[in-house]
Each structure stands twice: as C-alpha cells, then as structure tokens.
Amino acid sequence: IVGQKKTYLTISGILVGLSVVAMLVFGFREGIDFKGGAILTFKADAGASDIHGVEQMFRADLGLSDARVNYDAGNKNFLARIPHASEQEHQNYNSLLKAKLAGFEELSFQSIGPSVGAELRQRSLIALALVLIGISLYVAFAFRKVYRPVSSWKYGWVTLASLFHDVAIPAGLLAVLGHYGKVEIDGNFIVALLVVMGFSVHDTIVVFDRIRENLLLDRGKSEFGKVINESVNQTLARSINTSLTLILVLLALYFTGPATLSYFVLTLLVGVTTGIYSSIFVASPLLHAWHAATARRAVAR
C-alpha cells in the first residue's frame, strides 16, 4: 500500500479536484427542502409512460414552468414538485387537475416556505461542519497515547481529509447530475452524507487502531511504512467483506426501491464505495506521506 501511495493519492486528488470544480461551476439544484415549494402526491389513471405528458400539463395548463413530476412505481402514484403555493392556489390547482387529468385524486400536499428552506439549509451545513470537527477531535483524543512516529493530532487531520474525500465525490456527482439531469438535492442528501461520514470514519478508525496496536507492540523496531502495510493487510478482509455486504443491500434498494429514494441510495452507494477506497488507499498512505515529508524537513535542518 505505502509503496504505491503516489498512485493512490493521485487518483484521489484527481477525483476530488473534479468534484470540487463541478460543485463550484455547476452548483447544486436545490430541492423544495432548501428553496421552498410544495409537493403534491396524487393518483390518476395515467401511468409511468405518461409522465412527460403529465409534467407538460402542469407547466402549460397550470402555468408552473418549474414543475417536476415523478412516478412512484411501488405505490403507483405521482409526485409533483411545484413552487410554494397558498391554500387558494392549491385548491385552484386541484380543480384544474380534476378537469384535465382523468382519475385525479390528491393523496397529500406538503408546502415549505422559502424562509424555512433557507433555515434548513443553514442548519444542514452547520451539522456537517460540526460532525467533521467532532470526528477529528475524537480521533486525535483516541490516539493521544501514540506520539511516535506520528503525533495524535495528525491522525485527526488525516481522518478529516479522508472524510472530505468521501463527501466531495458523491457531492460532485450530484452537482453534475443536477446540471445535466436536473436532479435536485434535499434533506435526504444531507442525511446520506452524514451516513457516509459515519461509515467512512468507522472503517478508517479500524485501520488506524490496528496501526496504533502494532506501533505499541513493535516499539520502534520496524519502519513506519512496514507497520502501516501490515496493519492494512490485517484489516483488509474485514473491511472489504463488511463493505460489500452493505453495497449489495444498497444495490438491491436502488434497483427495487421507490423512485423517491433513488438518488439518496445513489449518494450512499458512491459515498460508501469511496469510503472503502479511502480507508485503505488514502488515509494510511496520506499518514505515511505526511510522516515522510516531516522526516525529510527534519533531516534538511
């Protein structure tokens, strides 16, 4: 692992760089949770094959140019995402839909005001930041007894870098999908990122904990790179087996689950996959690269 660290870190750097560029250039297409709006869930005689016509009806007949309509094959109903509507506008839409769409029956109507959406967005960003900081501090504290050859706080910073790697790549993918496929992010997206961070840090800590144990047992007899390689190899089978089990479950949910959760599950899939990669091929090599750079500077002095 350590011998090929430049290759692994270069791959990660390229992926993270492209993801950051995508987020900066494309941004995110915010859903109702963040920008405000309404979700109308209804049944009709139409089916999945008529979804384009139903969406055009919302745009042309109801005057909602930003309307997005999805079909939930599992529950056999439609979900229309529309701008924020007052109760009077809501009733007017229902009257028009009953006249235009055969078999129309409203199942639910949820409305979120723009101010509520903005507050939720702010709280979501704060939650992500607090989780990242909290995890880094916890790792630094947990490894406080390991000060040679790498200080405990470096474990925390490397964990933070790995988490950013695991969050940035799925976020970049959603930015691209939002630009080209009009995919929106909502509260589920934030939940998915939090789940990814929890899974990723768990795998990373397992590897780091084995490094800590081996360092204490080795007592400085072996090179740091050798200890890292042995530690990663000792935890490799467990990490892959656990992760593959989760990936299989997510794949089943992605292909058979409700359409409303498809991008939530996709975010988890990409995040978990990058988390597997980072816990094995990013975190430990990055820790060794930092140690090697520090050692070179010490020799130069």
TrEMBL record:
Cell inner membrane recorded as keyword: yes
Membrane-crossing segments per the record: 7-28, 124-143, 155-177, 189-208, 236-255, 261-287
Pfam family membership, one: Sec_GG
Highest taxon of the lineage: Bacteria
UniProt xrefs under InterPro entries: SecD/SecF_arch_bac, SecD/SecF_bac, SecD/SecF_CS, SecD_SecF_C, SecF_bac, SSD
Membrane topology, as annotated: Multi-pass membrane protein
GO CC aspect terms: plasma membrane
GO molecular function, one term: protein-transporting ATPase activity
HAMAP family in the record: SecF_B (MF_01464_B)
The protein's name in its UniProt record: Protein translocase subunit SecF
Transcription recorded as keyword: no
Example GO BP: intracellular protein transport
Keywords: Cell inner membrane, Cell membrane, Membrane, Protein transport, Translocation, Transmembrane, Transmembrane helix, Transport
Coiled-coil segments: none
Cellular compartment(s): Cell membrane
Domain SSD: 124-289
